[in-house]
Each structure stands twice: as C-alpha cells, then as structure tokens.
Amino acid sequence: MYIPDLYKNEDKEAIRTFLKANAFGILINQTNGKLWATHIPLELEINKEGEEVLMGHISKENPQWTAFESDNQVLAVFTGPHSYISSSWYDHENVPTWNYSAVHIYGKIKIIEGDAVIDTLTKLVDKYEQNSKCPVRVAELSKKTMMQTRGIISFEIKIEEIQAQTKMSQNRDDKNYSNIISELEKTENPQSMAVAKEMAKNRK
C-alpha cells in the first residue's frame, strides 16, 4: 500500500501488539483466475522453527484454499479503529480526512495437518475464551464435535514483508491535535473514541 513517510510505522513491537489486538483480518489471493478474499482470524504465532507466522483456517467449502499449493503468495490485511476527521475542527481552512491504522502482510501460505491443526485451534479458542464465565476448552469437546475439524483447512503464512501505516493527524500542531481528540471524544462513537485514545497515547 502507499504509505507517506510521516505515517510509516516501523516499530516492530507496536506492529506485533496491533496484530494481536486486531487479529480479525482479510486473507487475499488469486483463486481460479480472480482475486479472492476471506474474513477470518489470523493469529500471529511462533512456529516450530521459531519463526513468526500467521496461523488460520477456512472451511473446505471455501474454494480459496484450492489455490494455496499452485500459487502460495497471499496478502493479509488488518485494520484498527478509524474515524472521519472534520476540517471544521481545525483553526484554519483545510480539507476533511480520515484517521486509521492498517497493516498489510505479504507471505507464502502452506497447508498444515495433523496435531498442528488441533494446536492452532486450541490457541485460538483459549485466547478468545479467557474472559468467558464458562470457557470452552478444545480438549474437553466430544469426539462428535471434534469431527467438524475435518471440514476445515488449516494453514500457516510465512511472513515475507510487512507494511504498516498509522495515520493519526501527525501533521497537526499541538493545538489542532488536541482539538481533534476533544471533538472525537464528543462523538461518543466507539470507533472515533478509540482513535482519540490512540492519538492521546501517541502525543502526550
């Protein structure tokens, strides 16, 4: 993606944190001669070789997986909170814009099988069940329920390139920057308020 230098995010730890917090991404590839996209959780993990990878799975009924072996190049897209920014919030005339964060990961995908499939499903469920009153455990599911794993294709994406952009009004002076935060908070829109929180954290 096009990233102006001002908005380029090269902080590896910040990118890791972003990916873990915004793991519901879009997996994109070429399938049957056209672009194909699936919205799924893509979890940043360490594989058995000690490499950072993305792990995920899709339904066998989804034709996207049929192209994984013939063309293993994929793109994973992740976005965080975003919000419209009105130029009426500035102390000067200008154009409206949009604040957002995004990470694009380019890599090679390969299908995984066997125990590794259950391992990745266990990690996924444990992550999202940790705040449940009665957390589900993969190890406690019946054989009948676990038979459903036969209907998925699990995969690992070897990361080759990361492009990260954080566009949060970095080009504004302190006065206008503070006013943008204040106006975003007034909207009471969860996305806008999340952007305000991110901006406040970035410039104290």
UniProtKB/TrEMBL annotation:
SUPFAM superfamilies from the UniProt entry: FMN-binding split barrel (SSF50475)
Protein name: FMN-binding negative transcriptional regulator
Gene3D superfamilies in alphabetical order: Electron Transport, Fmn-binding Protein, Chain A
Pfam families per record: FMN_bind_2 (PF04299)
Organism: Flavobacterium aquariorum
Transmembrane segments: none
Upper lineage: Bacteria, Pseudomonadati, Bacteroidota, Flavobacteriia, Flavobacteriales
Coiled coil feature spans: none
Superkingdom classification of source: Bacteria
